Design the sequence.
């Protein structure tokens, strides 16, 4: 014979929900407040530059080869010392990523020999047209740092002969 | 019947209809806000300050949405069903008094629309009409889910209407009248100058049955079987869109307000409260506050309990609530006779015996749910 317990159990359920009203809301007012993304978050790609303003991308298209969704298209052209975009022989004259195809797996990042392509923290990717889903190089490339020269640069001959820089093991 | 009286009725009817319809709009906001707070969210806060304009945005959205009518639907009934559902929901509160009568500018003003001597009977009959709208909406849609929703809804509403009616009977017996005004006046005054003479204290179990049965009557969680999304998509309003859907939605929420107003009147003292005889304008405020609290109860229950299974719903209605409410009617009648014939203090018999019977009912439900029938074999 249980008379009080069933009623108490119901009341305990009601008390639990009522108590939750005193909780602080977890809502983040999104467009105004943004939560910082995690360190290893994979957002929109960014094409990096060296400190002197030269592009890291050498147009090798290894990222395009690694891409499981076939989202990346690279076309490379020859660098000259008068018009130098990146160290070494070649640079990416066309670099397009189709954001409708991209699955943000990060394989391009792993494949890149110069750490040129990095999946950044930008996640607000919206467009109203299929054509707008193709992000060209101008949208992806990092802006030139203060004090650095924009590309193409005019450089001394015989300085930038090596496409792939000497690198240490990546730290995270 | 003079012109002034007609004008008074027109104005009161118009104001009350506006209160109900505006109340419906803000009840949706209230529910969303309260549910959000229970779920550690904020709720709508974009349209206007604190989301105050959200109901208007919703209304504009619903008005401009395309209205679809299924090709093989019964067009006349399909159009008529939402109307049949809304009208009783708005009309039902006509007999609820919202304040005492008072003289204003030499004119005697009654704060109710209609004072019918069988007010409670009127409520019961109008409440039953609402079932037609729902079952017709389900049937005319020519959709099996809508049909099932409509059928479930009618079965559920008819089953729980009996318990609801019998819980009304205890209030009628205690007041000795079916007039809503008499019922409210019977709840005026205090015991020991402190405890209000509300029927919820005389008949707590009857009030409980009323509250449970109203949840089933207005198809609210945990008895929202007709709209069980997981099994019936959206129940009887599956095929409705645009303003027709808005009407069905409106009927549901207006019925919530109406049933809360009726509950406040029958069991929670209506417009009675401190100083209401000195300042009659306090009456509408008191009943408004009581309605808000009862509505919060409905929202709170929705946020807490999961939907119960259909067969258990019917079993609960017929095997528990019906006998229990019959027993309560008997106890109330006996208690009133004892109080009249022997000693007026014996009115205590009613709450004590009711609670005992309710205890037996709870024990029996508990035993039934523990029986091997429900255990997995």
Sequence:
């Amino acid at each position: 014979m249980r008379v009080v317990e069933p009623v108490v159990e119901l009341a305990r359920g009601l008390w639990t929900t009522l108590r939750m009203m005193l909780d602080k809301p977890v809502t983040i007012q999104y467009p105004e407040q943004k939560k910082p993304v995690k360190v290893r978050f994979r957002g929109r790609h960014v094409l990096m530059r060296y400190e002197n303003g030269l592009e890291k991308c050498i147009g090798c298209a290894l990222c395009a080869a690694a891409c499981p969704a076939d989202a990346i298209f690279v076309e490379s052209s020859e660098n000259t010392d008068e018009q130098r975009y990146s160290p070494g022989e070649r640079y990416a004259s066309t670099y397009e990523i189709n954001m409708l195809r991209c699955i943000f797996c990060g394989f391009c990042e792993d494949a890149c020999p110069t750490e040129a392509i990095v999946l950044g923290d930008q996640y607000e990717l919206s467009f109203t047209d299929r054509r707008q889903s193709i992000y060209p190089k101008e949208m992806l490339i990092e802006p030139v740092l203060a004090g650095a020269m924009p590309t193409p640069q005019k450089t001394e001959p015989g300085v930038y002969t090596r496409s792939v820089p000497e690198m240490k093991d990546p730290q995270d | 019947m003079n012109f002034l009286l007609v004008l008074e009725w027109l104005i009161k009817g118009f104001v009350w209809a506006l209160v109900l319809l505006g109340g419906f709009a803000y009840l949706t906001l209230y529910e969303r806000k309260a549910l959000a707070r229970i779920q550690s969210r904020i709720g709508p806060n974009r349209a206007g300050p604190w989301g105050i304009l959200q109901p208007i945005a919703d209304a504009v959205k619903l008005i401009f949405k395309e209205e679809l009518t299924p090709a093989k639907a019964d067009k006349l009934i399909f159009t008529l069903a939402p109307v049949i559902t809304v009208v009783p929901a708005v009309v039902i509160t006509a007999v609820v008094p919202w304040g005492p009568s008072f003289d204003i500018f030499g004119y005697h003003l009654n704060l109710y629309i209609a004072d019918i001597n069988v007010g409670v009977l009127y409520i019961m009959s109008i409440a039953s009409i609402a079932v037609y709208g729902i079952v017709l909406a389900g049937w005319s849609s020519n959709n099996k889910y809508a049909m099932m929703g409509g059928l479930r809804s009618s079965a559920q509403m008819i089953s729980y209407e009996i318990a609801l009616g019998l819980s009304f009977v205890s209030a009628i017996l205690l007041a000795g009248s079916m007039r809503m005004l008499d019922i409210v006046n019977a709840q005026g005054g205090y015991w020991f100058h402190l405890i209000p003479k509300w029927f919820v204290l005389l008949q707590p179990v009857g009030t409980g049955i009323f509250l449970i049965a109203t949840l089933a009557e207005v198809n609210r969680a945990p008895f929202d079987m007709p709209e069980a999304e997981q099994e019936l998509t959206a129940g009887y309003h599956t095929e409705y869109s645009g303003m027709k859907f808005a009407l069905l939605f409106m009927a549901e929420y207006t019925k919530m307000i109406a049933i809360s107003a009726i509950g406040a009147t029958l069991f929670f003292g209506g417009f009675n409260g401190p100083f209401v005889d000195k300042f009659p304008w306090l009456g509408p405020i008191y009943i408004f506050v009581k309605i808000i609290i009862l509505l919060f109860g409905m929202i709170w229950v929705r946020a807490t309990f999961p939907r119960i299974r259909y067969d258990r719903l019917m079993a609960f209605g017929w095997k528990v609530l019906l006998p229990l409410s019959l027993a309560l009617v008997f106890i109330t009648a006996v208690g009133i006779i004892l109080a009249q014939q022997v000693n007026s203090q014996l009115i205590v018999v009613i709450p004590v015996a009711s609670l005992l019977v309710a205890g037996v009912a709870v024990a029996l439900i508990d035993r039934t749910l523990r029986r091997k029938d429900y255990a997995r074999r």
Observations:
- The mean pLDDT of chain A is 87.
- The interface with chain B takes residues 1-3, 5-7, 10, 13-14, 16-18, 20-21, 23-27 of chain A (CB under 8 Å).
- The longest helix of chain A spans residues 4-20.
